[in-house]
Amino acid sequence: MIKNEIDICVPESIIRDWQEIADILSQVLDVPAALIMRLSDPDIKVFVSSKSERNPYHPGDKEHFSGSGLYCETVIKSGGKLLVPNALTDEKWKNNPDVKLNMISYLGFPIMLPGKKPFGTICVLDNKANQYSPTAESIILKFRSIIESNLELIYMNQALGDKNRQLSDYLMEIQALRGIVPICSSCKSIRDGQGNWHPIENYFIKQPQADFTHGICPECMKKLYPEHNKNS
Fold first, then answer.
1. Which tens digits make up the pLDDT trace of 58-81?
2. Of 47, 56, 41, nearest to 2 (Cα)?
């Protein structure tokens, strides 16, 4: 099964831009429906739909992707353009689900994420036979390029954000480890980075944020464990 393995969160501002794209396509090409479809495993759903009067599709409409028989399934699986001028005269397409909505002609292209993972499709559908001109194809491809550029930036920003969070967590761990200070269990003297021991009050003045781990300073070792000094 083909699926989108990259979790992309499309900002509302970008969705509004894509809505304008769908509306322009519907108006300029004089078709009832212009759609941006999105894979959402295991389904494919209408992500953006033109706000045209004769459009039977609504954002959020979805179908099970694999084996759906939808035009868009073929586009995504083939990774290329699909043109169906008239499904009613085409044995392969005359029974596809969109025909039930009287959408008998289709032109669509895949939308890809970075790494060539499929995001979905950009497509137009008509309730009458339509060959779609080369100009129509060029317009759709130009808008697809804009959408894929948007997705690339979104992906890079999200990936960078994840790496920044990982780096921040790593630095916090290092700072925490560096902040663990050896303190004598007996007299509470503090050992600095050079191995010298100081009264605890002096260290607090210089390092108020430090955490402590217990040890025993040399002087207390002599007092508490004289046999250790004899052995050493």
1. 999 999 999 999 999 999 999 999
2. 41
Q: Are 22 and 49 in contact (CB under 8 A)?
A: yes
Are residues 145 and 192 located together in one domain of the fold? Answer: no
Structure tokens at 180: 């663990």
Distance from C-alpha of 160 to C-alpha of 63, rounded to nearest angstrom: 33
Q: Does residue 11 have a cis peptide bond before it, meaning omega lies within 30 degrees of 0?
A: no
pLDDT digits (tens, 9 = 90+) for 15-50: 999 999 999 999 999 999 999 999 988 999 999 999
For residue 102, what are the β-bridge partners? none
Using DSSP's 3-state secondary structure scheme, residue 104 falls into coil
What digits encode the pLDDT tens for the residues 107-150?
999 999 988 899 999 999 999 999 999 999 999 999 999 999 99
- Tokens in use for 179? 């902040």
Element (H, E) at 124: strand 118-126
Domain check: are 118 and 182 in the same one? Answer: no
What would the DSSP string read from start to end of 89-114?
A: G-TTTTTSGGGGGT--EEEEEEEE-T
Look up tokens 């269990």; give the residue: 185
Secondary structure letter of residue 80 according to DSSP: S
Q: Is 208 found in the same domain as 181?
A: yes
